[in-house]
Amino acid sequence: MAFDLSGPAVEIIIKHKLELVECLRADHSFILQHVHTKRIVTDRQYERLKHISQPEERVTELIDQVIAGGQESCSLFLKVLKEPDILQTYPQLKLITEKWPPLTTGSGDDNGATVKYPKSNKCLFSAWECENQGNISYMR
């Protein structure tokens, strides 16, 4: 399955990739845990990323994986980056996220990073969450 590597969320991450790597490498395990918990990366990707010892390399590879996931993956990642506990852990991230234009990919208001659930065969959420959004699929 090919993912759409264009879209506003993808562009934001690509444009600010160097800043994000510099910022997130300060506590690379923390962001990795959050991205895995939100199912933005698969268990297999998570295990591979965990074994990269260099913080900058680990964060760079994580961001590359998010970008490879396409617009929906990038939108979810941007949403994670705006969560209060993430902003508290990475205070300089607030300065980076303030540069971003509002991003709306679904309905509702969530500080400019509203995400709709994927309609592909690859669900980024648990089966229960997908089922309750009308998308019954399972992680592969």
CATH topology name, in short, is: Death Domain, Fas
Structural category:
mainly alpha
Number of helices: 9
Question: How much strand?
Answer: under 5%
Description of the molecule:
The protein is mainly α. The chain has one domain: Death Domain, Fas, CATH 1.10.533. It is 55% helix and 3% strand. The protein contains nine helices and two strands, in the order H-H-H-H-H-H-H-H-E-E-H. It has helices spanning 8-15, 17-24, 28-37, 43-50, 55-68, 70-81, 84-89, 92-97, 127-131, and strands at residues 103-104, 113-114. A two-stranded parallel sheet has the order 1-2. Helix 1 packs across helix 6 (70-81), helix 2 (17-24) crosses helix 5 and helix 3 (28-37) packs parallel to helix 5 (55-68).
SSE arrangement:
Elements: H1 8-15, H2 17-24, H3 28-37, H4 43-50, H5 55-68, H6 70-81, H7 84-89, H8 92-97, E1 103-104, E2 113-114, H9 127-131
Parallel strand pairs: 1-2
Properties at a glance:
two-stranded parallel sheet, Death Domain, Fas, mainly alpha, 140 residues, single chain, 9 helices, 2 strands, disordered C terminus
Compact overview of the structure:
This is CARD domain-containing protein. With 140 residues, the chain is mainly alpha-helical.
